Amino acid sequence: MQSIEQYLEEHPFFEGLGEESLTLIAGCARNIHVPAGAFLLRAGEQADTFYAIRHGRVAIELGGPAGGPVVLDSVHDGEIVGWSWLIPPHRWKFDARASEPTSAVAFDGACLRGKCESDTALAYGLLLRVAQVMDRRLQSARVRLLDMYGVSP
Amino acid sequence: MTDAVGQAPMLPRLFSVTRSRQDTTDTYTLELQPLDGFPLVFESGQFTMLHAFGVGEVPISISGDPTTPGPLKQTIRDVGSVTRALVAAQPGTVLGVRGPFGAGWNVAAAAGGDVVFVAGGIGLAPLRPAILEVCARREDYRRVVLLYGSRTPADILFQDSLDTWRRDFGLDVQVTVDNGQRDWHGRVGLVTHLIAHAGFDPQQTTALICGPEVMMRYAATAFLDRGVRPSNVRLSLERNMRCGVGLCGHCQYREFFLCVDGPVLDYARLEPLMARREL
User: Fold this and answer.
1) Which residue of B174, B178, B192, B194 to mutate against A (max A Cβ within 10 Å)?
2) Of the four listed, A6, A86, B10, B215, which is most buried by Cβ atoms within 10 Å?
3) Cβ contact, residue pair A144, B79, below 8 Å
């Protein structure tokens, strides 16, 4: 059976973070398994957890103006869910729901923030990685605003 | 000037609609048989000028199998008066067909390596013949991946073909949509983001891309970022094709006439042009 540190070493998000930093953050982590349909986090709740997905699929959702929620993005093996644990006021802006059985490493957000405050190299490493994810998702949202598959005027 | 069956390229041949299949709410695939009995021989990626008599003529990609004799298949999205007339054509309706025209995907040049298809929306239709060509000679290719982006789950084209390619030919088929509802359990997000996880060997990969131009630009950049040679990244461009033989100039893209030099061109030639706003 693999330790959490070994999982983190293999997870693309943490690639290049360094053994010392991985050991440090592993102390804030636990393994979780969630069934399909279960929520990892809900909009409006305190953002106190950060998930590194090992296997499965998570839908990032937002309640639509009418009808059911709209799935804005899906997160898969090797990706992460949530950055609001890092950014005040630490409150989730979206729902995240497992759309299939999902295994993840769940980090305690307050614990991670504490480690970051005392270790600037770790803080920079995590911020850089989270910023890359934010950049990719912002790009995705911008391009999809173009409705590029719609009919041209 | 005449083509292989002695037909002047500006003169439509007559084809009869034998079948019409509704693929999505606004997209149909027509099957056509030539009234003169000579099948239309084409290469994957080529297009025809399809003529609805009394209405007009538009360029339409061929979506059938170039390796197997059969009816001419053309997939049409209802976006204007001519395409509306075409998708409304019932079995027995006679349409005019000019072509095939243009330079295709040149799939055979990818033999021996990995092939990654990236399709967006109705861009899967012109790629379908190339995918069928690879499937017909599957042993000639290594890893074959299809990354397909659609607006919504209801807009996914050729669902039955996607399943067959995955199941019978070992293609890694990944589908993503821009807008998903909760009953969609697949991927949601940009098709270009799937490229990072497609697992190909950049040195021996050919990428064939067809879809909205903004998507193709991002996709081509993603392949180049991963070390794929620009000459191995091929895009199918859409412009206002009219004559089909490079005379009228409607489809001119600086030095290229896309109806003759294209619609498929490699990114080594396109890169300097695609970023220019004035073209």
Assistant:
1) B178
2) B215
3) no
Please tell me whether the interface predicted TM-score (ipTM) of this complex is above 0.90.
no
Q: What is the pLDDT of residues B179-206, one digit of tens each?
A: 888 788 889 999 999 999 899 999 999 9
Amino acid making up residue B126? P
**Exposure letters B147-168 (e unless 16+ CB within 10 A, then b):** bbbbbebebbbbeebbeebeee
Residue contact A76–B197, C-beta within 8 A: yes
| Contact state of B150 with A99 under an 8 Å Cβ cutoff | no
Q: Report the relative pairing of strands A49-63 and B27-34 from DSSP bridges.
A: unpaired
Closest by CA to B76, choosing from B65, B89, B90, B87, is B87
Nearest CA in chain B to A137: B189
Question: Which residues does residue B76 pair with via DSSP β-bridges, in sequence order?
Answer: B28
**Span B111-147, pLDDT tens digits:** 999 999 999 999 999 999 999 999 999 999 999 999 9
pTM assigned to the model: 0.91
Place of tokens 């995590």: A126
Residues of chain A neighbouring B176 (CB-CB closer than 8 A): 74
Q: How many residues are present in chain A?
A: 153
Contact present, B97 and B126 (Cβ < 8 Å)? no
